[in-house]
Amino acid sequence: MIGLKHYLFLGGILFSIGLFGVLSRRNIVGILMSIEILFNAVGINFVAFNRFTHPGIPWGHGFTLFVIGLAAAEAVVGLALVLAIYRNSRTVLVEKLNLLQG
Amino acid sequence: MTESTLLINSHWIVIAPLIAFIVILAFRKILGLDGAWVGAVALLYGLIHSFLIAIGIFDGSLVLPSQGLQGHYFESSQSWFTVGNFSFKVGMLIDGLSSIMLVVVTLVSFLVQVYSISYMRGHPRFGRYFAYVNLFTFSMLLLVVADNMLQLFIGWELVGLCSYLLIGFDYEREAAAYAGRKAFLTTKIADIGMYLGLLIIFNYLGTFSIPQLSQNIASMQYPTWVVTMIPIFLFIGAMGKSAQVPFHVWLPDAMEGPTPASALIHAATMVAAGVYLVARVFFLFEASPIALDVVAWVGVITAVLAATMGLVASDIKRVLAFSTVSQLGFMMAALGCGGYSSGMFHLSTHAAFKALLFLCAGSVIHAVHTNDMWKMGGLLTKMPITAITYLIATLAIAGFPLTSGFFSKEEILAVAFHHNIVIFFLLSFTALLTAFYMFRSWFLTFTGLARDKEIHHHAHEAPLLMTGPLMLLAVLSLFLGAFFTYQGNITKWIHWGSHDTEHHGSAVILMASLIAFVVGMALAMWIYYFKPPKYQALAVRFAPLYQILVQRYKFDELYLWGIHRIFNPVVNFSAHFDYRFIDQKVVDGMGVLGKGFSYVSDLFDKYVIDRFMVDGQGTFMDRLGLYVRRIQSGLAQSYLFWMAIGLASMLVWASHVFK
């Protein structure tokens, strides 16, 4: 029987993959994609908790929809930033963007 | 004026001479010789006031409120200053003892002051002289009325200072300056004893108040050495002031001062202080039989030695000085034998006739301008009043029946007779010597041939201002003793009767004093009046004895020898030690050591403090910064990585804590 634990386990794996991607991708676009995976992991958690702990109240679904909406907006802003960065420094690799190095 | 106001205002007796002193000293240029009258008025006031008090106490009309000490007393004191929780006081203590002493002091001071107006006329510093006399009187009165040992000690030291000032008054003469220093130093050395006594008193008895002391000593148990050493130390101070052997050396030299000042010193203000101290704190002496024996024997030895030294003195004032030392020995012996009131009785009668003797001597010296009795002689016709009054005083001091000295000396002999027969015989012998040398001085000065015609020719009787005090004192010398004796004697006054040995009408004592008087006088008359050349033969015959006496048992030489042979080497050694060891080794060594230390300290400062700690801090921070800056790589991902690590560890921690 598939229960809450399995969903949370799936959310955890997805979050870990997303986090790993954020930390390890050199390409900003890849990082943005990894962030999308993180959002989805969180969305799965919300839905799973809603389903198994408070089945009658659809707040979890609502939040998930907001997260998807926000993810779309974030992707737009993020890609716009990527374009702006690329236009300025001719690169999309984050390790090159070290203006704040001490 | 009621009796209590007499007592309450009694402090003015003491303050009046002080005011006179300040006024005379401040305005001596303006007042001139009139300054003396300011002092005389102040002293006359003191005399009248204290006379009223003494009479009031004597006939019982003056009520002394407090019980204790020697019968009743009046005390009023004020806090002077406070140290810790101990309050030092200044106050008045009036009882029979201090009242009679007040009369003695003010009387003699007043007469001396009046006498001096004539005697000191023409002296370049007479204003200063009268100021000193008043300061002297003030100091003595301060001592007499003191209700605590500290105030007494202050008066004591002031008295010593004033005697120094007056003895060395004619400081142009080297001998006077020397005598002043000698008196000051000798008494000062003795004062160390008194000072030690005061320290022990304060440490063990815990108070300076005299009534309180007498209560403490009576009611509490103290270690024996404390009870013994307190009176002995105090007595050492008294020995210095009252010129007891071996501290007597200053008094014969003290005649270098103006003669009226000598009268003051010998009769009332200086030497009486020692006897008065012993009488004032007699309860301390009574507590220790050893101390009483010391007092008695020192007194007896002093009496005998001084009397023998007086036998051969050629200076008229020196004879009187030795007689003072001898009579003081009498008083001390009386006190030591427990004869409290007889000692004080002799003190007061002695004050009268000794002041008279010195003032007479002053009158003679004033007339003949020499102290040497060998240059006098035959002055009876030239200055009859002086001669007669001197004779009266001589009779009194020699113990002619019914004069004052007869009664007081007989009482002392009686006390000694009941206490210790050896002391009695020695004192009787001294009385014989006293009669001898006093009549010797009278015969040499006033009778026989004029040995120096020039001097004899110019001699003249003194003016009334000088003879007046002489006559008054002569009357006192004659009748004071009889007055006391027929009023039931002085014990009634001093309220110490229970402690005196009962001693009346003993034929042995009467005979002893009469024989002493008659033999002494007869010998003097025989040697110096009927067979004047006889003394030279005697001096040759007993040459060794004569030499010892003339050289005053070589006390001065002994002290000088001590100073040269013991004191100076010790001092030189100390100086040498001080220079060679303390200065050159210890002090300079300290310098070298300090230099070494400062060198080490300098190195430490330079290398440890400056380089290691101050600079090191900067360097450390600099290096640290080099390492720490690497964290700030500018890579957003690495920041995020650390953030994730942090967040994860916080979550792990939280899950552990909150379960």
Helix count from the secondary structure assignment of chain A: 3
Give me the count of strands of chain A.
Answer: 0
**What oligomerization state is this entry in?**
heterodimer
What fraction of the residues of chain B are assigned to beta strands by DSSP?
A: under 5%
Major beta sheet summary of chain A? none
Molecular shape of chain A: elongated
What's the total count of β strands of chain B? 3
* Computed CA radius of gyration of chain A, to the nearest angstrom: 17 Å
Question: What does it look like?
Answer:
The complex is a heterodimer of chains A (102) and B (659). With 102 residues, chain A is mostly helical. Chain A has helices at residues 4-24, 28-53, 59-89. In chain A, helix 2 (28-53) packs antiparallel against helix 3 (59-89). By secondary structure, chain B is mainly alpha-helical. Helix content of chain B is 76%, strand content 3%. Chain B has helices spanning 3-8, 11-26, 28-31, 35-59, 96-119, 126-145, 149-167, 174-205, 210-219, 224-241, 250-253, 259-269, 271-280, 282-286, 289-310, 316-336, 340-368, 384-398, 404-419, 421-446, 453-458, 464-486, 491-494, 507-530, 534-541, 543-550, 555-628, 636-658; strands at residues 66-67, 72-83, 86-94. In chain B, strands 1-2-3 form a three-stranded antiparallel beta sheet. In chain B, strand 1 (66-67) and strand 2 form a beta hairpin.
Features:
heterodimer, A: Helix Hairpins, 3 helices, B: 659 residues, mainly alpha, three-stranded antiparallel beta sheet
Question: Could you outline the blueprint of secondary structure elements for this entry?
Answer:
The complex is a heterodimer of chains A (102) and B (659).
Chain A: H1 4-24, H2 28-53, H3 59-89
Chain B: H1 3-8, H2 11-26, H3 28-31, H4 35-59, E1 66-67, E2 72-83, E3 86-94, H5 96-119, H6 126-145, H7 149-167, H8 174-205, H9 210-219, H10 224-241, H11 250-253, H12 259-269, H13 271-280, H14 282-286, H15 289-310, H16 316-336, H17 340-368, H18 384-398, H19 404-419, H20 421-446, H21 453-458, H22 464-486, H23 491-494, H24 507-530, H25 534-541, H26 543-550, H27 555-628, H28 636-658
Antiparallel strand pairs in B: 1-2, 2-3
Helix pairs in contact in B: 2-4, 2-6, 4-5, 4-6, 5-6, 5-12, 5-17, 5-22, 6-7, 6-12, 7-8, 7-12, 8-10, 10-13, 10-15, 12-17, 13-16, 13-17, 15-16, 15-20, 16-17, 16-19, 16-20, 17-18, 17-19, 17-22, 18-20, 18-22, 19-20, 19-22, 20-24
